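Technical note accompanying the year-one report. For the benefit of new consortium partners, we illustrate the data format agreed upon in the data management plan: each record pairs a sequence with a structure-token string. No post-processing was applied to the example shown here.
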Amino acid sequence: MNTNFSTYLKKLGIFALFTAAITANAQENYITLEKAKKAALQYSHDIKNGNLRIEKANAQKQEALANYFPTVEALGGTVYAFNNFIDPITLLGIPEIDNVYLASATASEVVFAGGKVRNANKLAEVQVSANQIRAEQSVDSVILTTEKKYWQLVQLQEQQKVITAAKTYFAELLKQQNDLLDAGLIAKNQLLQVKVNQSKILLKESKLSNMRKLALLDLALYTGLDYDTTTVAIDTLHQIVPPELKYDHTVNVAENKNYRLLDEQIEASKLQTKMAEANQLPQISVGVNASKYGTFNVGLDSDIQPLAFGLVRIPISAWWGKEKQQIKQRKIEERIAINQLKKGQDQITVGITKSWYDLLDAYKQIEYAEDNLEYAEENLEVQRDNYNSGLNNLSDLLDAQRLQQEAETELVTAFANYEIKETVYLYRNNQLDAPTIEELSEVEKE
């Protein structure tokens, strides 16, 4: 079995030179896979929203952290009466009073709340971690989608090369048929057979051209790059290293981001249960207050009165009321989260394993497609020689050409399919070469 693809690559030499010429003369009309991925990562709204969710979670974390500090508030008020509050009492030396004011400041601190404050802070940290994982998932998803769209574009470009080669073949065959017809060696219907097949090739060329433009538009819209129908994807289908030699396949479920999210969900559920249980425990708070009151115009003012206080709140009805049922609900949710983790672990294991076997099958597809192309090319050469020698008819030659063209298209499809399957495997097994959220943030700042 030929695995070096030398024959196939030689056939792509002309197109490679053509691509190089385009790159040299019009540098703006090319795109590489890395360029597409970089643009998509900077343009993606999902990634931007992921960063905003992290920022929001950090704000919630700071909000929870504020519960460790005392609550300070000030109160001020005044009342004016159109009629006196108190009429003057001359014997007691009390003047008329038609206004009063009050100024007060209080600082209080919860010193015990059953661990509710501590667990609320832990829960906020879990939310930050979960949003960071979701943001990482967005990055991986953007890379996966970009690669799929890019290789679809490359596949169409490669198929266009197959059609170009077929057009050249039919142009030569048509010239030969015209010469034979002029010499009176063939009937006109043979010339028409060639023209019919040539028309089919031209129709395929038109369809592929439109499909390539649509794929290019799809990629441009997803990455934020400018749409230009002359743009050429530089990365082409190339020799593939067998997956068994390239990857040391292991199913690493613990590093899978979906698994990590499910694990964070269990932790969040446990903390919510503890917070619900805290509603049944006493709450103790202490504080200080300073106040001053009096009137504005008669000189009846008090001195600033400081005082300290302590409060104990015992939620007795919570021991049998709705709080007890809320705890029961939270414990059920905790068990559900654990079951979801076990279910997710099995699904992730199956998904990674399936993607590995898909990758192996994709590589086999390349090997079989290459063999088929080799056989089809040999068959076409034999049929062409036999036709030129008068040993077979034109239909056999046209069938051989069709089989060769189909085999070449299948090889292109096999290459593109392998590239996509490889990306899916890396995506599911958490091995994608992806930048971190911090690295993306630094790029956006620049």
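Partners are asked to follow this layout when depositing records. The CA atoms of residues 270 and 334 lie 6 Å apart.
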